[in-house]
Amino acid sequence: MDVNNQRVEKIYFQRLDFYYQTLAIYSIVIVVYSILRGSIEGGTLTVRLLDPITILLALFIIGTSIALLYDSIRRRSIIVGKDYIIFRLGKKEKKYNFNEIERIAVVPDKTFRFRSSYSTAMIKLPERRRMLRLRFTSYENEKDLYEDVIRIKKIIEEK
After folding, report:
1. With contact defined as beta carbons under 8 Å apart, do 26 and 94 qualify?
2. CA of 98: how far to CAs of 22, 79, 92, in Å?
3. What confidence tens digit (pLDDT) does each residue in 72-122 have?
């Protein structure tokens, strides 16, 4: 916080809602499939757990749960300050002042899996040969992140 009670740093966390949605869908499908493949005899429902499709769905659920746990522990985030940007991955973080960033290009996202009005930012950092790709849709509060990156781009172009 600075003197005017305005927020100096903005933190944008990576979205993990895709994992929750996937887990919910797999769980519903495995329950419905198990009920449909089971049998009702004498007023009791018998569920077949050793069916190959049930095992495959269970493996998907386990794999997605492990990926969710792994990404929750890493907790990737971007912190935008007054004159710097920090890329944080778990306990590691890299801080770049705006004057260290060589260039930022905002390009349309070429993949069709995201239907968003926000593009992708390509950030050229001094220690990397390839540009860093930043998808706005991969982070919470994508509109504010997009506006902050555009603000940083204007500051870099002025220097």
Report:
1. no
2. 38, 13, 20
3. 998 899 999 988 999 999 889 999 898 888 899 988 766 655 555 668 899
* Whole-angstrom distance, CA of residue 104 vs CA of residue 29: 43
Residues 6+ apart with CB under 8 A from 76: 13, 14, 88, 89, 90
> Shortest CA distance to 104 belongs to which of 144, 158, 157?
157
User: Which residue type is seen at 98?
Assistant: F
d(CA 15, CA 75): 9
Task: Return d(Cα 114, Cα 137) in angstroms, integer.
Answer: 7
102, 107, 110, 115 alpha-carbon torsion, rounded to 10°: 130
Range of weakest confidence among 28-37, 41-50, 55-64, 77-86: 41-50
Which residues is 120 bridged to in the sheet?
107, 135
**Which alpha helices (DSSP H) does 38-84 contain, by range?**
52-74
Residue 153 phi, psi (nearest 5): -60, -45
Alpha-carbon span 22 to 18, nearest angstrom? 6
